[in-house]
Amino acid sequence: MPAGAVRATIALRSYDVQNDGYAWFSRPFVTEVKPGTKTWVPYSAGNDRTVTASTRALVSSTAMTLADADSAIGRRIDTITTDYVGRDSATNARVDQTASALSEGDRALGIRVEATGATRESVAAVVIAQADAWVQVGSAIEGLRMGAKAGIDRATTLGAIVAAAAVDWSAFGG
């Protein structure tokens, strides 16, 4: 042993890896050498049962863990699939209920319209015109709201914030 040595390196080389890329240590011999030793310590094969047993246990544990994970993933997939099938059924039932309610509402509306002597087309024209008017009102309200919000964002004093928040709603009856 060289004077002052504090470690050793074991090198394993495998040639002809085109055919078999594996190489194994089987019962390697590593031993401590005391200072002043002048001869090699005789080889002793020792016992590799502990290493073999722990390696087998690790492989078995890893395989079981992978199998458990695979099983858990499979169960989760089944749960999600069942959940979505259930949701699809519930959604389809709600779609059917909605279609039925719309049909019933349409029938009831028809009865009311006919009772006034108006046609469905004339009532529809009034409803559409009113909806268009509400879109314009909604847009105007949103413009005032966004203007106030921008003014508040620019304000640097409490008085400026209060002034920016004071929106004139009188055009909307408020």
Describe the structure.
The chain is 64% helix and 0% strand. The protein is mainly alpha-helical and 174 residues long. Helix 2 (120-154) runs antiparallel to helix 3. It is elongated, with a radius of gyration of 42 Å. The chain starts with 48 loop residues before the first helix and ends in a 9-residue tail after the last helix. The mean pLDDT is 80.
Question: Could you name the key traits of this structure?
Answer:
64% helix, mainly alpha, 174 residues, elongated
Q: How large is the count of helical segments?
A: 3
> What is the H/E order?
HHH
Mass-distribution shape: elongated
Biggest sheet record:
none
- Report the count of strand segments: 0
Helix content: 55-70%
Mean pLDDT: 80
Instruction: Give me the Rg, rounded.
Output: 42 Å
Q: Which band does the percent of strand residues land in?
A: under 5%
